[in-house]
UniProtKB/TrEMBL annotation, chains A, B:
Keyword field contains Signal: no
Signal peptide: none
GO MF annotation, one: transmembrane transporter activity
Keywords: Membrane, Transmembrane, Transmembrane helix
Pfam family, one: AA_permease_2
Bilayer disposition of the protein: Multi-pass membrane protein
Name of the molecule in the record: Amino acid permease
Principal subcellular localisation of the protein: membrane
Cellular component aspect of the GO annotation: membrane
Length: 605, 605
């Protein structure tokens, strides 16, 4: 039943050999990996305008130079990550780059930040997408958390089905979004050029008295919160079709170009139209409204915008499982993240991402405002570390033209570091949790590695000297009466050894006497030990007895506790029987050094 | 950790011999068993008045004769159950009486009704108690479900601690309630007698044109919905101190006297004061208000009334586990209901009652109106069956004076049957669920009994002919590599038999070749079988192999699958390892007829 449901949900299991077919073409990769970055145009310009409005409407013209600066940073990041792709063709996320060049602790800091950040990506994007819908349809406002959760479940299932299938489904809306935004930008420019817009924007270069450098930097860093997702491509190189590096680099440049064009277009239109940020209507919505009016085209643009925000969450579904795989390979995360599921995706990573982000959405009640600062910080820490790592690499290896590369990464590193520091100083009340959470994550990484190391050491064998040792056998059979399953268990025990002892726990004299008499009558050729329990507990006296047996014979004998158990025909019949044997097994398993054998007896009705 | 929490919550475990100390004295029994019945004065009169008001305020004088009729029925029920106590000194609830005299199916109908009814008692009483609180403190109205659930959890924990302790805690408020109501009645009578009340009630005997017999019967039956809980005493006789029958009978009469006096007192005051039912203020609250004004005494009375309603739920906590025990003894319910917990209470019954009633409260959002009709019907079905059973008993046994006893039970039976039928005809929309639910419960009873019967038959042994049979042994050891735990497992297997085969599942040629080579090098004296898996599943090829072994050797050999497993030092480390062996064990356990042995290897760091 469960199995059928699983098949319906995620499809037939696939052979390991089918893995090559799951690799991504450039166009599909663009859809799967760039929606996070592209969707940022839905709020990037707005973040800048919100900060500038603190200095009055006259200050909004600064959004143009600031947008150009963000564009410059985007260029630097793209160039930097292009260098990374060729330097680390097997997948060079911030984790790999920082680990290789700056040492393991720094790598883990980058990896930990990214893991947390991918979870935040899903939470923020699904919440923001929900906001876009509920802004358009206010009656859905009460169901915001539910809508976000439904999307997370949907994305999780799609990703469990496998990467390529989800790419095919998800590519269409990504391209629709790109087309919609370009249509909006072109129509807006034409409308502005033909004088169809009357809003008076403050002229470029107007002097505004209360604009400080701090305010401008804050506006710049707020705008940069939209640059998340750029690293997704360089992290996912092994997912690309051959030649994977070339394809990944091309995809990265395609993404950067589209993103840059859309972002500067929206910023220009917002400036020309003289749009002020409004908590009840997004900037994109205001531009679309001013250009087309609240007609069909407006609603299409809003709908696709909501969709792309949900798809942005999908980026994390490619990146998180891969990063978890890499961390698991280095033994910093549980081995289960290395296992490919029925559909060849890293199911455990996908499921963990879905559950954790859903928890965040519930915890923050789908409130994006409180999540975004952590989200942005979580991105700029690995950005900085990754570029620092590349700087070290160029200095060490000194390949041809390394000076230019070094300068690119240095500029990038300083910029991203500045932005991260601005976040820390201007929004500390929102992000302090990161400084508690990250050390805990890194501590867990090290504890996990230590455990694997210790385990391997204790399990290691010397194939020359360590050979199996043969000992005698003693078998203890706890029984609750004389039944068919006890008969068969005793038969089995006697087939193994002559040292068999049956143990019975009685609660009162009458019970004990009856049992002893019946045993004598049956006479199975095995000694019966009777224990008395005052506390209605079968386990305690039994454990005591097994302790004694262990103490007496473990030097010469293997001790086996043989548990007779009958198995009901239907699962629900289980609740009709006291599960003492299961509890006994769990107890022995965790406490004692004895072999635990279960003798099953299948009831056939 | 879990264990410590349990100790804190429910106290130290108690010896079976301590059970006598848990028996109830009469005064404690009155507190534990009568709160359900006594609390009914909080709403009994009101139920009558609500129905009568349908014919206008002039009709409220009928409440006096109707209350007297309810009192008469109470007398009949008390006399009847007193007869039952002496006839069935080991506990004669409706289940026992109906089963013994009317046959098993009727007994199960009574038992099923009562079980459902006890759950409804807890749900209705805790909801009604919450209503009383939120009527007094309207700001708590939004947290009604939460308050009711907290009370259910509290009662569950108290009852898990043991009967006597909870009796000591709960006796005080029950007696406070009795005192409070008598103070109210006496003060009210004095005030009325000294002319302090000016309300004009319609005179007794006033002719009201639209009062039909049907209306009067409906009012009577509504008033009777307050007679629940009378059977609790006769069901709980084994809980009384010796001489238990005498003590139970005395307790029953004490309870009936107090209940009758309070009920008629409240009805008289309501009539004298000319009180009309009001959905926003209970009748008791109106009387208290008219007598004392909204001062300290008023709030004390309201508070104690709320408390007694919560305690009414406690009655079910004594009755439900005992009835479940009796049904389990007859194999109609799972055996687990016969097990006494650490504190000697029937923990499983207590926990199940708590969970099911909490579910009802959540499902009905603490809305008492929709629960009460089912609740009342669920009581009057077993009332009727119990008295029918007693009638049959008197005719059969004909003890001295049986005619009087027969007449008492006949009158009772006819009255309760009539009330049950009135419920069915006047409130069918509220109670139809009972007619679906009860047959299902009875079906489950029979299925459970059949399963126990079948199991016993399949497990039964002939001690003369059925002796243990000795066979050979074949051991299969699935391995994932060559480690210390595999070395020890192989050593164990070789100590048992020479027919040992190790099985390895590989995913690709490289892996398989490496394994085969290392095995040859190690040379443990055991054959290695290598299986190849295309679907990354270890289980499927392994199961296939075990099938083959079973098919070949099960005639001559016991087949054992020995699973090497290392056990981590800390529980959380479990998640760091793939739990293939646990899944394999579960699979084998449910599907195959092989002995499953686990060889544990405890990691010590």
């Amino acid at each position: 039943m469960m199995n059928k449901f699983k098949r319906l949900l995620i499809g037939r299991p696939m052979k390991s050999a089918e893995i090559e077919g799951e690799k991504l073409t450039k166009l599909k990769a663009l859809a799967v990996l760039s929606s996070d970055a592209l969707s940022s145009v839905a709020y990037g310009t707005e973040q800048i305008l919100i900060v500038l409005m603190a200095a009055g409407f006259a200050a909004v013209w600064y959004s143009i130079p600031i947008s150009i600066a963000v564009l410059g940073l985007l260029l630097i990041l793209i160039l930097s990550y292009r260098q990374t792709i060729f330097a680390y063709p097997t997948g060079g996320g911030a984790y790999i780059v920082a680990k290789t060049n700056l040492g393991e602790p720094v790598g883990l800091l980058a990896g930990g930040s990214l893991l947390v950040d991918y979870i935040l990506t899903v939470a923020v994007s699904s919440s923001a997408g929900t906001d876009a819908i509920t802004s358009a349809i206010p009656s859905l406002h009460d169901h915001r958390v539910l809508i976000a959760l439904i999307m997370i479940v949907f994305l999780t299932v799609m990703n469990l089905r496998g990467v390529t299938e989800s790419a095919s489904v998800l590519a269409i809306p990504v391209y629709l979004f790109v087309i919609a935004i370009f249509v909006l930008i072109l129509s807006g420019i034409i409308k502005f050029a033909t004088g169809g817009v009357h809003a008076a924007a403050p002229a470029l270069g107007t002097t505004v008295s209360n604009v400080s450098l701090f305010l401008l930097l804050k506006a710049f860093s707020s705008g940069c919160s939209a640059l998340t997702g750029v690293e997704a491509v360089s992290n996912a190189i092994p997912n690309f079709k051959q030649p994977s590096e070339r394809n990944a680099a091309t995809t990265l440049i395609m993404m950067g170009t589209i993103l840059g064009a859309m972002f500067i277009g929206i910023s220009l239109l917002a400036y020309w139209y003289g749009i002020a940020p409004n908590p009840k209507e997004t900037v994109v919505s205001q531009i679309a409204n001013a250009t087309f009016g609240r007609g069909t085209i407006y609603y299409i643009i809003q709908g696709i915008t909501a969709l792309i925000l949900f798809l942005a969450a999908n980026t994390a579904y490619s990146a998180f499982p891969l990063l978890a795989f890499m961390l698991a390979k280095d033994k910093f995360m549980p081995r289960m993240f290395m296992v490919r599921g029925d559909r060849l995706g890293f199911s455990n990573g996908i499921i963990n991402l879905g559950v954790l982000s859903a928890l965040l959405v519930i915890l923050f009640q789908g409130n994006t405002e409180n999540l975004i600062p952590m989200y942005a910080l979580g991105v700029f820490i690995p950005f900085t570390l990754s570029q620092l790592g590349m700087m070290v690499r160029w200095v060490k290896l000194k390949p041809p033209g390394w000076r230019v590369k070094f300068i690119i990464n240095t500029i990038g590193m300083l910029t991203t570091l500045t932005i991260a520091l601005i976040f820390v100083f201007t929004k500390f009340t929102h992000i302090w949790m990161v400084f508690i959470f990250l050390p805990i994550v890194i501590y867990i990484f090290y504890q996990t590695q230590r455990h694997y190391h210790n385990t391997a050491e204790q399990l290691r064998i010397d194939v020359i000297r360590d050979k199996p040792i043969i000992k005698g056998n003693t078998i203890v059979v706890p029984i609750a009466g004389i039944t068919q399953v006890v008969k068969q268990s005793i038969g089995y025990a006697k087939s193994v050894t002559d040292n068999v002892v049956a143990v019975y726990v009685g609660f009162n004299d009458e019970e004990i006497e009856r049992m002893e008499k019946k045993w004598e009558e049956w006479d199975p050729g095995v000694r019966l030990i009777v224990l008395r329990s005052s506390y209605r507990s079968v386990l305690r006296p039994l454990m005591k007895f097994i302790n004694t047996v262990e103490w007496k014979t473990s030097a010469t004998d293997h001790i086996t506790v043989l548990i007779p158990q009958f198995i009901t025909k239907h699962w629900w019949q289980h609740i009709l029987h006291n599960q003492t044997s299961l509890v006994l097994r769990a107890y022995l398993f965790n406490q004692k050094n004895v072999v635990i054998s279960t003798f099953p007896f299948h009831l056939n009705k």
